[in-house]
Amino acid sequence: MRRMAVLSVFCILIAALFAQTQNDKTKAPAPLRNEVDNLSPLNVQTGLWQMTETVTWAGLPPQMQSAMNSGVSIKYQSCVKQADLNSNPWGHGSGHSCKWTTLTSNGTDMSIEGDNCDFGNQNGWVASVKGTIHVSDPQHGTGAMDVTVNANGQTMHGHATYTGVWAAATCPAELN
Q: Residue 129 and residue 148: Cα distance in Å, rounded?
């Protein structure tokens, strides 16, 4: 059960990282302006991304240290659609219900926050996330997230780093 909760924590961080805006393999379109929010969606390609996440935890109670796999890299796939790019396109599919807020976004850099994230709320786990994403080109990106998990009166802090590489214009059915 703890391993599933830990994997859930990793999934939200993972899902909270990368998105794309079109299926063209060589060049994504220029960012669109969202006049209401004065935010631009990330200027990356939509479709399948290969992701690598590494989370380092601090303040872990002894009973959680072996379950949290601090410093271990995890590889996963992420599928993001163009419609997701004005909010937090990485929060979908994580199984967690965060209230996401995009603080800033200019097409290459995005700052986001997730509050009241359900990281195993049935077990008393609630988290908040704050992070940044940087797109070096339409097919490559990096990110960093700081996570605070409150679990049954215990507070744990994690710092996650991410790298993402665009892999394909379409996603496998199980990721859609």
A: 7
What are 70-92's pLDDT values in tens digits? Answer: 899 988 888 888 877 777 666 55
Query: For residues 79 and 174, is the Cβ–Cβ distance under 8 A?
Result: no
Q: CA dist 39 to 43, 76, 91, Å?
A: 12, 28, 18
Please report the pLDDT score of residue 29 as a whole number.
44
Cβ contacts of 134-137, under 8 Å, gap ≥ 24: 134/108, 134/109, 135/42, 135/43, 135/44, 135/107, 135/108, 135/109, 136/108
Handedness of CA 8, 12, 14, 20 (dihedral sign): positive
Query: What's the rounded Cα separation, in Å, for the pair 155 and 65?
Result: 13
Each residue's pLDDT tens digit, 140-172: 999 899 999 888 788 889 998 989 899 999 999
* 22 C-beta neighbours (distance < 10 Å), count: 16
pTM beyond 0.70: yes
Question: What class, spelled out in words, does domain 2-20+37-175 have in CATH?
Answer: mainly beta
Q: How far is CA 130 from CA 45, 67, 121, 149, in A?
A: 23, 23, 19, 12
Nearest-angstrom CA–CA distance, 21 and 85: 7
